[in-house]
Design brief:
This protein has about 180 residues and is an alpha/beta fold. The protein contains 6 helices and 6 strands; from the N terminus they run βαββαααβααββ. Strand 2 and strand 3 form a beta hairpin.
Amino acid sequence: MEIIGHRGASFDAPENTLASVHLAWAQGADAVEIDVHLSLDGRLVAIHDANTRRTTRVNRKVARQTLAQLRALDAGRWKAPRWAGEKIPTLEEVLGTIPPGQRLFVEIKSRADAAPELAAAKRRGSAAPLSQRHQLGIPTVSSVLNPDARLHRQSITDIIRSYLARVLTPEMGCA
């Protein structure tokens, strides 16, 4: 049996933050699942909801905020005072936490045009020690879920090992 940290170690730390992801690895998770949305300036950021209200106590739509605006918010204080100052991380920051042999599950919560940024985030997150893991064939992004079937399987096959879809269509390469 494998243990997958849902939004990191979200019971103990603020969900989808680096603190939560690091804690999931420290607690022995085999994999971590995160959710990502595209920011206004096209960066994939780890956050579950389409707005920031629940996890930052400031009501802003993620898609209408730049990465800098999102990073200015406190994504930890809502959980407990000890997590104050936690930021909304980028996908590449989360990629940088993956220990050798572990996996990351990414649920893309935003529009279908997230595929190019997913590839770019993987490239940016592949520097230094991560690149060695890629060369060894150890996956970082294990699967992607996107409710928008227009995100074609062919556009991300070099990035991930599996693709979880709610609806199978011929455009995705399915019969």
